[in-house]
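Long-time lurker. I teach an intro course on protein structure, and each term I like to show students one example going from raw sequence to a predicted 3D structure in token notation. This year I'd like something fresh instead of my usual example. Would anyone be willing to generate the tokens for the chain below so I can use it in lecture? Attribution to the forum is fine with me.
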Amino acid sequence: MSGVTDINPRVMRSAVPMVVFAMVLGVPLGAVAQQGEVSRVTAELETIIVTSTRRDESIMDVPISMQALSSTALKRLSAQNFVDYARTLAGVSFLDLGPGRNQVFMRGISTGRDVNTGKEATVAIYYDEIPVTEGSSQPDLKLFDVERIEILRGPQGTLYGSGALGGTMRVITKRPVFDVVEGYVEAQGSIMRRGEPSGSVNGALNLPISEKIAVRALGYGSWNGGFLDNGFTGEKDVNSDYTYGGRVALSMQANERLNITLTAYHQQTHSKVWLQQTDDYPNLIINQSAAEPHDDKFTILNA
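-- Reply from a regular --
Happy to contribute to a lecture. Here you go:
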């Protein structure tokens, strides 16, 4: 009995690619032999639709340098304000000088670190279609019930004005939906080893009034525990702050191509100190001879 087996050259040529492909994918050869063919592996990517050019487009088709964070990405980061997601943005830097007093820079273009000195900002901040940039500083509205954030690297003066030399940031909130009643309530909490606890609660409700009219309402409150101690008075955790606010949006579908949305937004923040910078790091000491509270109020009405 001979130990040599005849092999058809055609079978050999068709088997070699299958074996090589299986080795690359790490699939057992036995599984390939049993199936008789190699299945094609496909990867599904999340498609983000943006409106930065005043029309609905996939972010892959927009011919400008931009980045977008979806609501899923924001939830994964537990992002409630600008600082929570800013470190994930390419080409973006910032100064965090306290609630409502952020300075944002893109492409290295800056007017300096002084806040409220009359200098024009180099990054335009938009909430939906509303510009909210304040001189050299930018407000920090909470990111509850947000659809996505779009970051357009500048200059963007053609669409967003002279304050967009470095670029534009757009916060797109969730719009009312005409065919479903939905809502949610969320709560978060955290503790610090050397400081006070922090937390937040927010809730939203979408309510159709008719087939072509719907309203969406949001309410929230958050508090950040202090962690800086006053070196002059000995008071502990002096830099705490709390924020509360809400948003109401009313949408009307005039026809198939026209939607009209009316929006009202209010937020108020109270901070116990004005300048949240340490005088003795890493001991987390701030030297204040007198209290320096700071209130930041912001109201938007858009039609």
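Some talking points for your students: The longest strand covers residues 241-255. The chain has a mean pLDDT of 78.
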